[in-house]
Amino acid sequence: MKILFLMSSVPDTTSKINFTDNDTKFDESGIQFVINPHDEFGLTKAVQIKEKNGAEITVLNVGTAKTEPVIRKVLAIGADKAVRIDAEPLDSYFTAVQIADYIKKHNDFDLIIAGKESLDYNGAMVHGLVAGMTGLKFVNAVMGLELKDDKTVEVAREIDGGKEYIETTLPLIIGGQKGLVKEEELRIPNMRGIMMARKKPLEVLPPVDAPVRTKIDKYEKPAPKGAIKLVDKDNLDELIDLLHNEAKVI
Amino acid sequence: MYILIYAESQNGKVAKSAKELASYAKAYADKTGQEVFAVGAGLEDAGELFKYGVNKVLTVENETLKQFNAFAHAQMVADAAKKNDANLVLISSSNDAVYMGPVLADLLDAGYVSQVISLPEESDTFIVKRKVFSNKGIAYTEVLTDNKLLRIAKNSFEVIEKPVEGTLEKFEPEVDLSVYDEYKVVKVDKATGKISLSDADIVVSAGRGLKGPENWGMIEELADVLGAATACSKPVADLGWRPHQEHVGQTGKQIAPNLYIAVGISGAIQHLAGVNGSKNMVVINNDPEAPFFKAADYGVVGDAFEVVPKLIEKIKAFKKQ
Ligand SMILES: Cc1cc2nc3c(=O)[nH]c(=O)nc-3n(C[C@H](O)[C@H](O)[C@H](O)COP(=O)(O)OP(=O)(O)OC[C@H]3O[C@@H](n4cnc5c(N)ncnc54)[C@H](O)[C@@H]3O)c2cc1C
Ligand SMILES: Cc1cc2nc3c(=O)[nH]c(=O)nc-3n(C[C@H](O)[C@H](O)[C@H](O)COP(=O)(O)OP(=O)(O)OC[C@H]3O[C@@H](n4cnc5c(N)ncnc54)[C@H](O)[C@@H]3O)c2cc1C
Question: What predicted TM-score, i.e. pTM, was given to this entire model?
Answer without folding.
Answer: 0.94
